[in-house]
Amino acid sequence: MLPVIDCDVHHTWNTEDEVLPYFPARWREVGAGGQIGILHYSGSRLLNGGGFLAYPNNGGPLRRPDFIPEDGTRPGSDYNRLKAELLDPLNVQRAVLSFDIGLQTGLHNPWLALDAVRAVNDWNVDRWLTIPDERIRSAVLVPTHVPDEGAKEIRRLAKHSKICEALLVVSALGKPFGDPVYAPIHEAAAECGLPIAIHLGGEHVGDVGHVSAGGVPGTRIEEEFTNHETAQRHVVSFIANGVFERHPTLKVILVEFSVTWLPALIRRMDANVKLMREESPWVKRMPSEYVHSNIRVSTQPLETLTSKQFRTLLDVYPFMEDVLLFATDYPHFDADDPFYITKRLPREWMPKLLYKNGCETYGWDESELTARTTVDQPVGSFR
Q1: Which of 53, 83, 281, 295 has its Cα between 20 and 30 A from that of 235?
Q2: Is 304 exposed, middle or buried (0-12, 13-18, 19+ CB in 10 A)?
Q3: What is the distance between the alpha carbons of residues 234 and 175, in angstroms, rounded to a whole number?
Q4: Residue range(s) defining the domain that contains residue 86
């Protein structure tokens, strides 16, 4: 069995009382009165987030039934369950904990959003990153309302040995994340050697997120079939605004936006590179080259195509096997495991996809992962 790096594992608190002590006193007082919402789950006081009706945030329909504890605790809130359900059976040697979609920044008040992110980051360090398990890694959640403050938060947390990425979710300023307004965040991530991760979901948080293609979806199926549009907008903005020319080592990971949209976008950008350069003198290379060197895409949710269909689609650009990072999306209902992936993508891609690309993206030593792996184990599966 190959070692596995899982770049999208959702963890959370069991109750908001775990996080409340990390807020400044003024917000705790307001939250105690039930006047505002900050974080993710319905029914919370201070810690309450948004969503739309067909995509409820109650810890039920979003979660795989077998991952919902019988004792009523929230899926993703307990390390021992995470170990038993994910780390051990799938040979996960690195699990990147990415909060519960990071909706903590879906707030209008930029200073409240900043304090919320700081509180969650500090809770994460104390609650999860002190666990004596070297497989556990996590993100620094980045506030985007005030990019200078977001850059400070990256630099504050990047020194922690288990922080491995800077996670952006809500585009609070209504601009794609490659826009120059986010330059302080780009610079801080590059300086600290952290990839920037952009996770699906922030486009639909209250009224803070922005959907560029026609408006906010009213049903789950609209969201599900069009959520890749936001990812395309981010990719084009990073290339057109010259972010990778200024920061050539910076990696950007698109998490949970699906996969098959990327080859079509690459082809369109390459075909129009002359037009791009008329407006953007920073596009020095072909867009496909920037994608190869700087963009990474998580495998989950992987479209239900056969291995032959995927090979036909992705072989248009042979470097696609270098771009994909394995992700389960644990403990969400549509979580993918390695066994599912090997049935749909070429088996010869598996070493890169399951761990080599992750090591290259996060700067980890492959030998540390392979040393703890039993080669003759079967491919892991949740099922």
Answers
A1: 53
A2: exposed
A3: 9
A4: 4-15+78-370
Give how many domains the chain has, as a whole number: 1
Contact 65, 131 (CB under 8 A): no
Q: Is 71 exposed, middle or buried (0-12, 13-18, 19+ CB in 10 A)?
A: exposed
User: Could you tell me the CA-to-CA distances from 199 to 281, 303, 329, 335 in Å, in that order?
Assistant: 29, 18, 11, 15
User: Encoding tokens for residue 334?
Assistant: 């549509």
The span from the CA of 198 to the CA of 230, in Å, is 10
Return the amino acid letter for 222: E
**CA angle (161, 255, 19) in 5-degree steps:** 55
Residues 50-82 have pLDDT tens digits of: 333 333 344 444 666 667 777 778 889 999 999
Question: Kind and range of the H or E element at 196?
Answer: strand 196-199
Q: What is the pLDDT of residue 169?
A: 75
| Domain membership flag for residue 241 | yes
| CATH for 250 | 3.20.20.140
